[in-house]
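#struct-help
A.M.: can someone run this one for me? Single chain, 476 residues.
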Amino acid sequence: MAVAYIVVIAAVSFIARKAGATSEGFVRGGRVFPAAVIGLFMASEVVGTTASIGTAQGAFTYGISAAWNLGALGIGFIVFAVLFARRFKQLDEVTISGALERGYGVGVRRAASVIMIVSLLLVATAAYVSGGAMISALLRIDANWAVVIVGVLSSVYVVIGGMRSVIYTNLINVFVKVVGIVVVAVSAYSAAGGYEHISVSLPSKMLDWDGVGWNQIGAWLIAGGGAMFATQYVVQAMTAVDNEAKARNAGFYTSLVLIPYGFLAALIGVCAAVVHPDIDSIQALPTMVVRLSPILQGIAVTGLIASVFGLISALTIGASTLLLKDFYQPYFNPSDNERKAVRFARLSTLGCGLIPVAAALGASDVLGMTFLAKALRASLAVFVVLMFRRPSYGSRQGALAALCLSLPAVIGWYAAGDPFGIDNAYIAILTPLLVMTIAQLSGRGTKASAPLARTPSTAATASVADSCREAARTDT
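D.P.: on it. Structure tokens below:
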């Protein structure tokens, strides 16, 4: 079943290859799509192995409240749909860094691009760790070889078809993932003896919705929900719909998948703590899959492999798009040679898929790495909110300084073990806010531009059009 799934994915990528014949087609998909398609596509991007195995791993240790890890993302997409989807569609920028440049200038664009690329590669590393652990446990092969296999297969098919293949294959992926997680959750719940047996077998805190602590839940809401405002593949997906209403609806469709998926993944981790209390926490979900019958195992394993492929495809094409638009085109291809651009897009996609493989061979904290990546994106979310809601706050120079400080501050705080019990997500938010507040109080520097403000020529054209309409009404 897993092999058949991989063959189907490869076939879809091959069919979609013509859309990647140009650089814009490679990064945008070459056409517009319905809101439901893009919503499910974004859900598939988010629900990777780090979400499935990582959430189950957290629930194995802390209980059902680990579901907030994905629930926060669902809430984030609702906020994104209400407040920002329409605005991003109006900008029609294919990169988050390009959107921020509208308000804060080219320096911020480059800094934001670096932060986003680091964040995406961190998530890719975590995806390889969890995917390798899963394949190693289920297929009984060496964990390092499993990581390499995952890296090669999940990178190559994106190189073939570009963004359109990512969208089409992720529609398949999200269906397989949801079916797989439901199968494992139902089986795990039955194996754990139902609610009554679970409640007497585990400490009561394991079944509390705030068992992980409100400090952690708040951090998830900030880092997870906030990260959705400033995630490359989310912004990139907004360019694949043809109007603002569809952009907003796509965000709602995504949340409808993420919130229940988070609960099911957490339920599996809790059940694993009852059935196999002595295993390593990262094996919580794979161990429950092993208990299934062969047919159900095939469904579950295929769903988990789809989780790897879906996430990695979004990460690799997102990172390669940033490299293409923000670094290669302006510095190495200023003449916009299409052939060179397409070649670089494909090579950078392959590189972004394979580079995290080396890091994954020595990493283990799946949830921690994923959360750090979300925290880094939450720093960018501060500027998204300010740019759209309060562009006069702070300055362009303050924004650049804040971004340059945010990356080492957040990573350093995470490496130090979150001193004083303050999660690195709070540092990710406070650092840019503090720097921008200092810039605001000092009164120095150039104020940001309103990204959706009309240019003088546009305003003049609109004024003429309004006058013509008024004259027509008068004549009538």
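A.M.: thanks! Residues 110 and 326 are 7 Å apart (CA to CA).
D.P.: also worth noting: The two ends are 68 Å apart (CA to CA).
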